[in-house]
Design a protein that fits this description.
Length: 299
């Protein structure tokens, strides 16, 4: 995942009217799920140009790997904005540019963020000629994100596909999936009404729940052997309840041991990507305690 803010610079030379519509849609009420325009002006050659913020995000696939199997509520949180944007774009109410799946991300707060490439955009023109530049309006333009025309795809289609990817990860036995999956499939290449139908089903599926980055406990020991050993190495037991109870006890104990081992070996999770060594955390706690004691003593 990216960890610091970056910016993209785009020049609207190849289709200035479409580029201007895109910019107008980003300038007011674009919502929290589209990357914001920081500055708009002209490139050194006089074309309309923008600077767009790229906050740090995890790509959606990576985010789903970290989250594990999303609950319905998490899937609702992730897919409602995707489908809302897709529905607006299909209805002509939002100018959405080209988009590859890597440009759909999830930020630290668990919010979906879409970084589409403006329609008609090209990499910014370089300032190798003074012609056509109006100093008051000019935007300094370092080279932006490379254009990737072969991988670009219709933005709204990518958004619906991304929503489908999220729901694919939800437990297949979840009742809503039986109805929702075919509706989402129809919405991939359908019209605005098809996307709205999928959105209505998603909204009715569950209340939204926040995306939590901490790995589920089960992911700390992926092999699962700990559970199986307790459950299967009890020969001659006809009291299944007793065996199950033993297995649960063994599994819970093993889970605690595994968790403690993970904390010692890999550190205490801080945020979504960093871990603090246990030794440093303990020193920090002791120092803080000492300072508090000293402060109390001074008073
Ligand atoms: Zn230009």
């Amino acid at each position: 995942m990216t960890t610091i803010d970056s910016t993209d610079h785009w020049c609207g030379a190849s289709d200035p009217p479409a580029f201007a519509r895109w910019l107008a849609d980003r300038s007011a009420g674009c919502g929290a799920h589209l990357v914001p325009v920081l500055r708009a002006g002209r490139c050194p050659s006089g074309h309309p140009a923008v600077e767009v913020l790229r906050p740090p995000v995890r790509a959606l696939d990576e985010a789903l790997d970290v989250v594990g199997t999303p609950t319905e509520g998490v899937a609702v949180t992730l897919t409602v904005p995707l489908l809302q944007l897709a529905a607006r774009a299909r209805a002509g109410a939002l100018e959405l540019g080209a988009l590859s799946v890597e440009e759909i991300g999830v930020d630290e707060a668990g919010a979906v963020l879409v970084a589409d490439r403006p329609p008609g955009a090209v990499a910014p023109c370089r300032d190798d000629s003074a012609s056509g530049t109006t100093p008051a309006e000019s935007v300094t333009v370092p080279v932006g994100r490379p254009t990737r025309s072969p991988r670009d795809a219709d933005g709204s289609r990518q958004l619906v596909l991304a929503a489908r990817t999220v729901w694919d990860r939800v437990d297949a036995r979840t009742p809503v999936r039986e109805v929702l999956d075919p509706v989402l499939d129809a919405a991939v290449d359908g019209g605005a009404d098809d996307v709205r139908a999928a959105l209505a089903l998603v909204l009715a599926a569950s209340p939204p729940r926040p995306v939590r980055w901490t790995r589920p406990l089960g992911a700390l020991f992926d092999d699962g052997a700990t559970f199986d050993d307790g459950a299967t190495t009890a020969p001659g037991q006809d009291a299944r309840a007793a065996a199950a109870s033993t297995a649960v006890g063994t599994a819970a104990g093993a889970a605690l041991v595994a968790l403690a081992r993970d904390l010692v070996e890999r550190g205490i999770p801080v945020g979504s990507t960093r871990r603090l060594p246990v030794r440093i955390a303990l020193v920090g706690t002791l120092v803080t305690g000492g300072l508090v004691a000293a402060a109390v003593g001074v008073r």
